[in-house]
Amino acid sequence: xxxxxxxxxxxxxxxxxxxxxxxxxxxxxxxxxxxxxxxxxxxxxxxxxxxxxxxxxxxxxxxxxxxxxxxxxxxxxxxxxxxxxxxxxxxxxxxxxxxxxxxxxxxxxxxxxxxxxxxxxxxxxxxxxxxxxxxxxxxxxxxxxxxxxxxxxxxxxxxxxxxxxxxxxxxxxxxxxxxxxxxxxxxxxxxxxxxxxxxxxxxxxxxxxxxxxxxxxxxxxxxxxxxxxxxxxxxxxxxxxxxxxxxxxxxxxxxxxxxxxxxxxxxxxxxxxxxxxxxxxxxxxxxxxxxxxxxxxxxxxxxxxxxxxxxxxxxxxxxxxxxxxxxxxxxxxxxxxxxxxxxxxxxxxxxxxxxxxxxxxxxxxxxxxxxxxxxxxxxxxxxxxxxxxxxxxxxxxxxxxxxxxxxxxxxxxxxxxxxxxxxxxxxxxxxxxxxxxxxxxxxxxxxxxxxxxxxxxxxxxxxxxxxxxxxxxxxxxxxxxxxxxxxxxxxxxxxxxxxxxxxxxxxxxxxxxxxxxxxxxxxxxxxxxxxxxxxxxxxxxxxxxxxx
Amino acid sequence: xxxxxxxxxxxxxxxxxxxxxxxxxxxxxxxxxxxxxxxxxxxxxxxxxxxxxxxxxxxxxxxxxxxxxxxxxxxxxxxxxxxxxxxxxxxxxxxxxxxxxxxxxxxxxxxxxxxxxxxxxxxxxxxxxxxxxxxxxxxxxxxxxxxxxxxxxxxxxxxxxxxxxxxxxxxxxxxxxxxxxxxxxxxxxxxxxxxxxxxxxxxxxxxxxxxxxxxxxxxxxxxxxxxxxxxxxxxxxxxxxxxxxxxxxxxxxxxxxxxxxxxxxxxxxxxxxxxxxxxxxxxxxxxxxxxxxxxxxxxxxxxxxxxxxxxxxxxxxxxxxxxxxxxxxxxxxxxxxxxxxxxxxxxxxxxxxxxxxxxxxxxxxxxxxxxxxxxxxxxxxxxxxxxxxxxxxxxxxxxxxxxxxxxxxxxxxxxxxxxxxxxxxxxxxxxxxxxxxxxxxxxxxxxxxxxxxxxxxxxxxxxxxxxxxxxxxxxxxxxxxxxxxxxxxxxxxxxxxxxxxxxxxxxxxxxxxxxxxxxxxxxxxxxxxxxxxxxxxxxxxxxxxxxxxxxxxxxxxxxxxxxxxxxxxxxxxxxxxxxxxxxxxxxxxxxxxxxxxxxxxxxxxxxxxxxxxxxxxxxxxxxxxxxxxxxxxxxxxxxxxxxxxxxxxxxxxxxxxxxxxxxxxxxxxxxxxxxxxxxxxxxxxxxxxxxxxxxxxxxxxxxxxxxxxxxxxxxxxxxxxxxxxxxxxxxxxxxxxxxxxxxxxxxxxxxxxxxxxxxxxxxxxxxxxxxxxxxxxxxxxxxxxxxxxxxxxxxxxxxxxxxxxxxxxxxxxxxxxxxxxxxxxxxxxxxxxxxxxxxxxxxxxxxxxxxxxxxxxxxxxxxxxxxxxxxxxxxxxxxxxxxxxxxxxxxxxxxxxxxxxxxxxxxxxxxxxxxxxxxxxxxxxxxxxxxxxxxxxxxxxxxxxxxxxxxxxxxxxxxxxxxxxxxxxxxxxxxxxxxxxxxxxxxxxxxxxxxxxxxxxxxxxxxxxxxxxxxxxxxxxxxxxxxxxxxxxxxxxxxxxx
Lengths: 548, 1042
What we know:
Low-confidence stretches of chain A: 20-26, 352-358, 360-364, 499-506
Oligomer: heterodimer
C-alpha cells in the first residue's frame, strides 16, 4: 500500500535524517556492490570482458566437471574402469546399480550446465560474424564450449533441457527435456559456427583453436554413426578426422610418455587441453581420483587413487599389445609400483606360483592408472596436471573405425592403427606392439574389435571408455559386462588363487554386473538426477530415462 | 496486592475499636530484596493526610486516631494497608505487583499502560533473573510466554538460540524475531545460522552480550497490530528488552552475585564397544564375500596383529563442566538522575573436553535531567566473548566435527581402518584425540552497544525524543587443523582466519503527543528513523607450516597463503512511522499504527512499502453490568489487524554477480578470471504478512487469577524464497517472491495466586500455544529445501514445501520393517529401481502410483520402488508447545519450578541414519543396530542385515530416520533463601540452588529432543546431525545486596 508518492516520502525521511545531521548522501538507497562484478559493470573494461571469456574455459575445469566429478562418474561406471575399495558412495556406480539419487551424477550435470550458462552469457553479448575479431573469437570459444558440454550431456543423459539463452529469472528456468536429435543439431550448428569464428592459432593456448571444433565434429559424427550405422555419418566422421590429421597443425609427440609429463603441457598432439596449475584455486583434483594411490611413490598429495582398471579390461589390453606391457600399458594399467615404505606393491595379474617380495594388499589388487600425478600438488584437490579433452591420436582411431565401416578390412584403417602402435613401440624398450597386417583379420568385426582395443590401450583413463562401450548399443555393452563377470569366475576358481592365501583376492569391488536385458539397456544412460526432477518443474518423474 | 486481604481484615477490626489520641508513626519502606524505596506515598485511609518516604525509605507520619489505617502505595507495587493500633514503628516490605493493570509496558517506539493495550503482548519480568544462575536470556523466556517457541537445546556454551513467535511464517527467510534493546533495533543478522552472511562463522546467540541480571523486563510483541510499527521487520514478532535503571535510595545499592554450576550430558548414545566393533568388521568382511558370491570360507580376523584396546569416546570426552559467574552492579537514583552499572565475568566449560566460553561485560545506564524539560538517557554496553572450540562442533559434513568424531569414531585405540576398510596405523586421523590435540578453533567477539537519547518536553502535550543507537561487532574466528586431522595432514597444517566487522546505527526522531479532554485521551508517536549496517568480512587461509606449534596465531608462517574473500555490504532502511491511541474512559481503546519502509536490499521501484495496523480493545469490566456480576476484576476483549513485512534477504540479492576464479596463465601463474556467480532478481519486493488477532483478558478474584486467550490467523504472502534453480539454468538459486503460508493458532496464558497468607505465597502459571501452519499457495509446484550437507550419504534435502502441507515437512520413503526370506520366496515384493532386493534389506512401501482403470487417479502400486514412491514422512512443526511453572514462598524461602514441553514434533535423526548404515566400516554404529541386525539364522524385523548395501540407497531417506521428538522437561527447579540481617552493611543475602534440565520425558533416541542442527534456517529444519548434546546443570550461588 502506498499513501504518499515515494519521492515525497523520501523527502520527509531525509528531513528527519537531516535534522539528526547524520548523512547527506544523494542516493542513499542505492545498493552498491563492492566486492564482486555485476551484470551492469562487466563490460566496463576490456580486461573484465576478456576475463569472462576465460571464465567459460575455466568452468570446464570446475570441480563438478573435468577437474573431478566427470572422472568419478565415468571412471566408476564405465565397465572398463571401476572402483578401488573405499569410496563407498561409488558403489552404486561400480555395481551398475545407479539410481537417480546416486552420488555425483547430479554434480556433473550441474557442472556441464555451468559451462553452458557461462557460454550463453558470452553468446548473448556478442553477434555472429562480428567484424571485431576479438569478439568473433570470444563467441567461437563460447560456441565450442556449449557444443562440447551438450555433447557430453546428451551422451550421458539422453535428451536434456536445451538452454541457449542466459536464464534471467526463475520462471523461465524450468525447461523440459529436448529431443536428442535437436540437441545434436544444435551441437553441429555450434561447432560449425565455432569453426568459422575461432582463430587458427590462439594466443592463449588454453583456448580452443578452430581445429578443435573440427575435431569435435569428427567425434560427434563417430557417435552418431555408431548409433545410426549410416555410411554418410561414418564418412563425415572419417573425413573430419582426416582433415584434422592432414591439415590441422597437430602432430603426434615422439614418445607416448611425454604426453603425460607435467613439464610438457600443450604438446603438438593436444587439440583441446584444460590448464591447471598447483596454485590455490587453480589446480585439479582428477589425478587424485584416477591417479595412483597416495601410498605410491610420486603420487599426488593425499591421492585416493579411486579409479582402477578392471581385470577383464586389463586382459584385453595386454592381449592387444602382444602380451607384454608397452609404454601405454605402464601408464594406463600399472601393475606394480614402489610404495612410500620402500616395498613394492604388486597387483593383478598375480598368478598361482608367482613369487614377489611383498605381500600385495587387497586395495592394491587392481591395475592402476598412472598418467597423471603431481607430487607438488598443494592438496588433494589442487594438482597441476593439465587434462587433454581431445588429442590427435583419437583422430587416427576415429579414422580407422570409420574407414573399416565404409571399406571393411581396408588397409587404410590398419595403417591408422599402426601409426599409434609404432609410436608406442618407439617410446620404450619392448619391441611390442607389432604392426597389424591385413592377415591378422579375417572379418570386419575382428578389425573393429582391434580398433576398440587400440582405443582402450591408447586412451584409457582419458574419459573415453564410458562412451566407447555404450555407443554401439546393448549387445556391445553386454559383451563388456560378460567379460567382466567371466573374469570374476576365473578369480574365484582355483586357478585364480595366489600363493598368499585366499585373502589376497578379497576385494570389495568384485561385483558381478547385471546381464539381464533391461539392466544392460538401463546402463546405456545415466538417470536424470533426482535433484533435477526436484528443482525443474518441467521435468517430472514420468520423464525419467527407461529403467530408472 | 498480597497484603490487601489482610489489610481489609485489619481495617474491619480497627473500625470497631475506639478512638485514641494521635501519635507519630515512623518506619521504613523497602522492597523484598531489602532495598529502600523512596517516594512511596503514605496516607491515612479516608483522609488526605499523608507523606512520602525520603531517599532512605524512611517516613514519619502523625496520626490523629489510634485506629487509623495507613496505606502505602507505590507505582509498580501492591498497595498495603496497616493499622497503627499499638504501634509506633511500622516497617513495610512492599511487593512488586506484576498483575497491576496500571503497569506500564514497553511497546514499539513508546510505552503504554497495560490496561490500554490493544495488541497481543507477552510480558516477562525478571525479578529473579541472575539469582538463579541462568547463563543466558533466552533460557529465561523459554516456557514462560505463550506463543513463543524457544529452542535453546544445544549444550554449546554460548550457542545459538532459535526463537519462533507464532509458528513458522517463512519458508526461506529467517524466522527469527526482531530484537530491540532499550528502544533501539539491534542488528542480529548473521548471528543466527541460515543467513548467508554467516559463511564460515559460528552462529551465536544474539543475546550473548546481554546479562540476564541487567534486564528489567522483556516484552514480546506477537500480533501484527503490535509489530506493524516495526514494519518490514515485524513479521516474525518483536522482542523488546529493557535494561535496568538506577533505583532510588539514600546511598547506592551494590549487589554482588555469583553462581557456580556443574553440568553433565543428559545422555550417551549406545554405540558399540571396541570388541563389538571388531566383531562387526569381521562379520562385514565375511559377509561381503558371501553377498558377492565369493569364497565363503574365509577366516579373516581383525586386526589380528594388534590387541584391541577399547575406547569409549563418549565417556572420555563428555566431561562434567564447571561454570562460574560473578557480577557486581551498582544502582542509585535521585530526583535528577539515575545510574546503573554492572560488571560481569562468566566462564563456562563445555561438556565436551576442550570446549569453553568466557564472557566479560559491562554496562552503564545513566539518565539525567539536564533541565526540567530536557532529559538525557545513555546506555552503554560492552562485551567480549571468547569461544574455545565450541564452533568446532558445528556441522562440517561427515564426521569432521568434534561431536561427530566422538560418536562415530572407531571405539579403538591406535588402530584405524583407512577408507578402504584396511587396518593402517598411519590412518589414525580425525579421532577425538586428534580433534583435541591437533585442532583449535577460537572465536572472539567484541561487542559495543550504545545509545544516547534526548527527551524534550516541548509543550505540555508534546514531547520530542531524538536518539541514536549504534552497535559495533567485531568477530574473528581462528581455526587450525594440525597434522593429526586429515584436512591438516594433507596440506602441512591448515590455518583459517575469518573476520566479520559490522557497524550498525539507528537514529530515531520521535514526536510524542498526549491530549486529554474529558473522558477522551489521545496519545501517540510520529517519527522518522534511519538505519544502516556496514558489514565487512574476510577469510584467509594459510597452509604448509613448519610445524603445528603456533597454529593460526601466525598465518604468515604458512608457505602457501590465500585470501579467500574480502567483502563489504551496506544495508539501509529508511522509515516513517506513527502510532495513535485513542482511549475513552479507559474502557475503549483504539490503536492505529503505520510505517513506511524503504530498503536498499530490494529491487528498484520495489524498495518502499507501507505497513498499517488497527486494533481495538474494550474493557468490559469497566462497565457496570459486568462489574455488578462481581466475577471479573478484569475483562477485556481485544481485536486487531495488521500488515507487517520482511525483507530478510542478504545484500545484493537483486543483482547478478560474477565470481572470481583462478585460471592459470600460460606459465602456470595464477590469473583471475570471472565466472557467473549468482542470479539476481531486480524485481525482488517485500514479503507481506497479514494477521488478525482476537484476544480476551480475564481477571478474577482481584487479579489473583488471570487468563489471557488469544487466537490469530497470520497469512504471509509473496514469501521471499531462495529457490533452487534447475541446474540447467547454470545458477544454483535465485531469491524470488513466491508462495503463501498460513499460520493459525491459539494461545493461553494462566497465572494464579492460589495462596497468599501468613507469609505463604503460592503461585502457579501455565501457558499453551497451538499453531498450525499450511502452505496455501506455491504456484502449483513443490520446492525442496536445502542440501543437508556435503557428505554423500546425507546430502539431499529432507524438507519439502508443497501446497496443502505444513512448512518443511519431511519427504522420503515409507518403510515397513525388514524383508524376510518368506517375502522373497512369496515373489510379491516390489523391485527397487528395477532390481530385486534380497532378504535382510529394508522393506520399502510401494505406494499407490499406478492408474489401472484409466480414470486418471492412481489406484494400485506399480510393483517397483522408485522416486515416485516417496511421500511425506514427518512434520517438524510441533502440534503444540506448553510450559507451566510454580512458586512457593515462605518468609525468606522460595521454591520454584518450570516444566516445558513440546508435542507432536518430528525430528529427522541423521545421526541415527548414519549409525545404522553399515556399509561404511570406518565408523562406529549403534550397538542395537549391530546386535539385532537381520541375519539369516536370526531374522530381525527391526534392523537390516549388515551388508544390506545401504549405499545403494545413499541419500535415500526413509521414515526409519524420522522420530517423534515430543517431550516434557523439568527445565528448572530452584530453592532459595533470602536473609535480611539487621546490620548496616548488608541489606540482604540470598543463597540459592538450581537444577536445570533435571528430567526429560521423551521417546526420542538422540541426545536431545529439542535439537535443531540448523537453527534459524527454515530450509533445513528439524534435523539432528552432529548436534551438541544437551546438558543438565546443578547451580548454586549467592546474591548479596549492600
